[in-house]
Specification:
Layout (H helix, E strand, L loop, with lengths): L1 H18 L3 H37 L6 H16 L10 H25 L3 H5 L1 H36 L3 H8 L12 H5 L10
């Protein structure tokens, strides 16, 4: 009986230690973050696919600001030229580069929509209005997908930094993952200047 205990006790202790090490949680959360990231990419691709149609509909408007259209086209080209791989999630520099390119496309599209407000004929164009609604819906989907990704990365990073699972993270090389950040944090933290005086 003692011989059997000596044989099975170390195995039982090892199993108990492995249960609390978090290895399976790392696998689960890593897959969840990859899945959430795929949805972010899916929505970014959906937006990129809309851009040529939006540009084509706006080009039909006489005297539309060519510089604005050029910036949208260039921003789309830059955003779609960045190759995203699963390793991007673990490379803060590549992740930031991708994020900046997507931010530039968002900004260019926002400027395009603001400029389009000045063209009543364009606003009356049903195809343009439909594309605008689709773009707004896509931007909302991007926000939802990014939020899901942020949540899964937060869970993963908490696991990677908490004791005792941080020991498993060190042993297996599970580094914290980069997350989305605000590009112009200093600007947005400044309160806006409001001036109601007429000039």
């Amino acid at each position: 009986m003692i011989r059997i205990l000596k044989r099975w006790l170390p195995l039982a202790l090892l199993a108990a230690l492995l249960t609390g090490c978090g290895y399976n949680d790392f696998q689960r959360l890593d897959e969840a973050s990859k899945s959430a990231w795929s949805e972010v990419l899916n929505q970014y691709q959906r937006r990129a696919d809309l851009v040529p149609n939006i540009v084509a509909s706006v080009k039909g408007e006489a005297n539309f600001e060519q510089e604005t259209l050029t910036k949208v086209i260039e921003a789309r080209a830059k955003a779609t030229s960045i190759q995203v791989t699963p390793e991007t999630l673990n490379n803060p520099e590549a992740f930031n580069k991708f994020q900046q390119a997507q931010g530039e496309l968002s900004g260019a599209l926002s400027r395009l929509m603001v400029v389009a407000e000045r063209y009543p004929q364009l606003q009356a164009n049903q195809a343009f209005r439909d594309l605008r609604v689709t773009l707004e819906g896509t931007e909302n989907r991007i926000t939802v997908a990014r939020n899901r990704y942020i949540q899964t990365v937060q869970e993963y990073n908490v696991l990677a930094r908490s004791f005792p699972t941080n020991l498993t993270a060190m042993a297996f090389g599970y580094d914290p993952k980069p997350n989305f950040s605000v590009q112009n944090e200093a600007e947005i933290s400044r309160p806006p200047t409001v001036d109601f005086e007429k000039k």
